[in-house]
Amino acid sequence: MSAEENRVYLIDDDREMRNATEQWLELSGFAVRSFGDALSALDHLQDGLDGIVISDIRMPKMDGMTFLSRLKGIDANVPVVLITAHGDVQMAVEAMRQGAYDFIEKPFEPERLLEVVQRACDKFRLVMENRALRRQLSESAGPEQRLLGNSTVMRRLREEIRDLADTDAPVLILGETGTGKEVVARCLHEFGSRRGGRYVAVNCGAIPENMYESELFGHERGSFTGADRQRIGRFEYANGGVLFLDEIGSMPLALQVKVLRALQEREIVRIGNNEPKPLDIRLVCATNKDLNAECEAGRFRHDLYYRINVVELRIPPLRERTEDIPLLFDYFSVQAAAAYKRPEVPLQDAGIGLLMSHEWPGNVRELKNIAERYVLSSLPPQQRLARIFNQPGSVLEQGGRKSLQERMRDHERMLLEQALSRHHGDVQAVMDELDLPRRTLNEKMTRYNLERKKYC
Ligand SMILES: Nc1ncnc2c1ncn2[C@@H]1O[C@H](COP(=O)(O)OP(=O)(O)OP(=O)(O)O)[C@@H](O)[C@H]1O
Ligand SMILES: [Mg+2]
Known about the structure:
456 residues; Rossmann fold; Helicase, Ruva Protein, domain 3; 5-stranded parallel beta sheet; 14 strands; binds adenosine-5'-triphosphate; binds magnesium ion
């Protein structure tokens, strides 16, 4: 790690102390800029901070607590470490309450100082990386800004969206709940040639059956009891733009035939009017049902299925693209921190394992909720996920720094355990699922002390 990446601003009115601390930090690879008082430091830092701050509390002109609150006004996420007098617990507690990252009691061991400063720098680097990521996202207008994920499937999906966006081919989006079907539909509109037109979303599962036809195709005034004014239907309203029929699998059969006719004829007729109106829409549909099975069961028309399913986009569930989880979690927690005006809480290393091993039945929506709860929790960061997942005593709470290799081993062990338990100890099934030769699986089970019969 270069000194450039670890910048430290040091504020202390005691010259000797300041020089000694500065030297210690510099010898340990930190780039230090020191000031004898808080006001001149503030002057220098007015336009933003590119490093962490260590400040004494008792200083003339401006004390460390006031300095802390002024710094938080410049950048709420910059870690500030305060130096308190020996035994001044009250002051330390107050400093933490006001958002100090940590405090060091005088006199301190240089090792203690280095440890705290290194942690603060690590945290700050994560904050900076998140910012860079967000800047990158807002600068590049494209599906990668809306539909995040670096897994191969998500990259391919974004490519398909880009290729399809400018065409009028009907698209059927398939995916479990919360996988991002609505996001994909919006991308097809936003990045396509119809972005100047409307994006009209209809939840086909939420319309009462007797309102269906009027909702989709509109009606003339007086065309039925209660029709006291004219109404434009969703199809007509979407003319020139994109019509998104969400949960299309829930559309009643009687309506399916009318929708099919409208799509085939490219025209619609309002209830109570004989005059067909030309229809010019791009149709996007979504479902989490198996429409083939629905067709077989007679609940969905084959002919409508073929018409809406010219191109199929399938979004895999989150558990099949676990590599996207840390990035999405990061993104949602940073968003939540901004929305709720809370400090950003970078994910603890050990927390990644917990996120990776969860099944995510609610997919990305569930992940987003968990990220919000993580940011809003008042527990120490290393306990938050364990509490949320209701697993006290998990690897998360054991704390401690683990090397990459140790973490990979933890993760591998966890995956093997899960597979063994899923297949009730059937080694052949585990070999098939994980694509492992028998010998490798045996070796790994021995290494991790996993006994087959425990899972039978
Ligand atoms: N790849 C992604 N990148 C960023 N945000 C995502 C992504 N996928 C989903 N989301 C977010 O997750 C939430 C759920 O997504 P969305 O509503 O599109 O899911 P869905 O598949 O339509 O779910 P449902 O079947 O329940 O209607 C939304 O807040 C959405 O913004
Ligand atoms: Mg949806």
